[in-house]
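Q: Could you fold this chain for me?
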Amino acid sequence: MLGTSQARAPRDEQGRGAPGVPETGDRRLLRDLPAIALLWALVVAFFWRIALAGRVLAGGDIFTYFYPYWAEATRATRAGRLPLWNPYLFLGAPFLANSQVGVFYPLNWPLWLLLPAHRSVHVTIVLHLCLAALTAYLWGRTSLRMGRVGAWTVGAVFALGGYLGAQVEHVNQLQGLAWLPLALMLWDQIGKSANRQISRAAFVGLACVVGLVLLAGHTQTAFISLVGLAAYGLGPALWRGWHSRKWKPAAQRAAWLAAATSLGVALAAVQLIPTGELSRLSMRARGLPFNERVSFSLSPLYLARALLPSYAEPVPPEHIEHVAYVGIAGLTLAIIGIRNTKHATRNTQYTHPNFLSVILLCSLGLFLSLGLYNPIYLLLARYVPGFAHFRVPARWLALTVTGAAGLAGWGADACWRRRRQVSGRDIIWITAALVVMTGWAALGPRIGDEGGVGWPTIAGWAVGIGLALGMLLARKRAPRLATAGLVALAVAELFAAGFTLPHSQATAPQAFTSLRPAIAHLFAADEAAGEPPARFISMSDITFDPGDLPEMRVIYGPQLAADALYDYVIAAKQKEVLSPNLPLAFGVPAVDGYDGGVLPLARYVTLQRVFLSEDEVSIDGRLRENLSTIPDGRWLNLFNVQHVITDKLHDAWLDDVFYDLQWGADLGRGEAAAVTHVPHFEATALGIVSHLRGGSALPDGARVGVVEIGLGEGLTRTFELRAGQHTAEGVYGPDAAHAQAAIGGHFRPPTSSAAEGVQPEGNDYVTRLRWGERAAPNTVTVQATLREGELVIRGVSLIDERTGGFQALVLSDRGNFRLVHSGDVKIYENLDVLPRSFLVHRKTEAADDERAVALMRAPAFDPAAEVILSTGESAAGTGDAGSEATGDRPPQGTKTAQVVHYAPEQVEIEVNAEAPGYVVLTDAWYPGWEATVDGELAPVYRADLFFRAVAVPAGNHQVVFTFRPRSVGIGVGISLAALAGLIVLAAGALSKAERGDIMCQGA
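A: Sure. Below is the predicted structure, expressed as structure tokens.
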């Protein structure tokens, strides 16, 4: 038995354990309940804004990531549907396989069933902080052998400290970390209990905890927890084995840990198998780029600052991952805990058997959190799986704060039980340590250009040091009162520091629940269009001021602090532009998305290369942040983008006329662009904003373009645009051969000097073309006639010069669009959009993704007429890609592929084709998607790099796509087998324990 080989703590002559070891029995447990209840009450008090006041967290990942994902999980749970697929983000992506959602984490299910999404997120935050306090308390009482005061301190420092407080916006990280102290406690029960039944029960419990941490969904947290558990459990055994050359105890402990971990992994296989399948197709399949692996490393210059609290100074977003404070009093207690490692009985003194484990936990967390600044970590991040797949090395601080909480508990326990007086020498050491720490924290960030520390924080540190030392000096006269004061000071520091963390800025619930006009417009358009709703793409900034900002201030200003009101305004803007992943919250399908885990799919990122340059492609998605111009119309058409959302930040008011500068046209000689939709508006002139590019040599008065305006009833007015009169070279210099026209504004054109980092300011020129009599134009066309360079049309507007009225028009050389909504943002409708499913008759095969990208980027590629089939691993099923399709020439006649039913995991399409072809569904191709044609299984081909296609013969057919991933079935089988095994083990341990009790009673 593993426990028999471990050193046991000495016992006194009555058979009791060392001081501080809790006695067993129901009475002892009942006496612990008030301490636990007080911890839980403090958690609620710390987080009262989301626990009691009903507010929401409108910043960071919780708003744009977890609220949306939990909203979809809530809809699916209440509908009795297992959410396998997400049709709303990334052109379609797996939902369940994205482990960060935590679909199989059992504590999520009742919340999804009973509460709205945002409230369930808040409840799980508070619930898991209470769980963290409980598990840390139990760890202190059992493994660390503390009394109630010491164990209470462990729970308070761990659950209320800065690390968990800063991570509440990362819900799945918090869920996983809440179980870490319990895992440490159960491991100690396995390794050190003399009772075999207790060891076996603890083994079952540890396997379940490992499974729960994995099911919580944050793989990095699970990795950190398991590494920390291994260090805590095996480190001292390896150290003793090295000195004694006896490796059997360490091997036994390693075997137990490996067995418990393996069972936990098997228990979580229902999540891990689908996630593993997704990982192979993810951007992280081969690890992150190296610079990403070491991003958010903890600088040694900032290390002390990370361990100390802030006061009245919000933590900057770039340092939120570096928060790990336990407070001045917490550090004081931890130092006392280190200085009081000897635990006395009546006969002897001994070093606590867990002391080395706790110190190792603290040290390992600090060592690995340095990341980029640690040569060993650089090797791990480059060559070791796990380290190569995660970023933010600072998250290893989770181990440090866990160990620090244990040390603080030991310090409080030693002071409360008067095991050893704190001598004057001890006070000198503590004072020196705190002064060095605070000096390092104050000067280190300045040296490293990380910003300074404000006077409120420095004053808070000084007061904390003074009070802590004062209470240490008072221990001789009132030891327990002084200890209680130290613990109370620690709690007060943590409470005050909590106001600097993002959760203190919780705002009104309407920040998430209310609709904005842009969302309402998309809802109305989707209802009119029927199923499936078309997609949208957003490329709007959020630096604009909402039109209802005054109303927000009137309504919410008296209720909210300034920071909370600011977050409310930002949330309104994020909803207006439907920033990722908010489309998922409202059930509106988008091209874009955001994820820092196993999504997006690698081919989604590859697809971006079709319309973005390499330096604009983001591995996390976030097209909105990377798009500098709207993609060409053929890509919007292929992606089923019916609506484009933009802001008004770059539009112009010139001479009291509004010009929409979002689209425009770059026209070379002979090229033309027309306004697709001209609203009925009686005007007397047409305003044009334009400039020339590469036309400096054009002489003054040279004709550069022709504008034709249809006035109805066959009447057309034609105007000439001339250099030096109506427009001129944008980057105008002394070498220009023509005069400057009337300057309307300025722009920064892409010039050769931009590559060198120099972007000369350019000009936009404004002119008016007048026809005198009032008329309502129905067409506007601009054609370039210049002999060199380009005529760049930025915007056009109809103007009624008699009344001052105007109507901005949309002129584009990238497709046909019309403005359908203008508020805080603009929404354009794509009039050429392809339906979600369509039929083509011409195909081209591509041997790999690079070839597919090249074929798609070719100017001749028309996605409405041709499909590019990948010939690698593209088909799910069997069949010949070309056996039922026509050749290169598309047939004449009707062809339709209408979606008649659209659900996340099933799509039904009715096809009417006069010749064989391919039904293309512009949802992401992924293993597990099956297709039937008239009930017969058919291969699913990867089309146009990313989408799905099925070959159909001529005639009327029904095509059904169904998502049945085998990985989920395999995972369910493994998890059920593991669960059955754990039940058998638990039942066996319980049965033997009961028989043992009966035998003892009989004796």
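A (continued): The chain has five domains: 74-225+257-283+966-1003, 298-354+407-514, 515-631, 652-822, 837-964.
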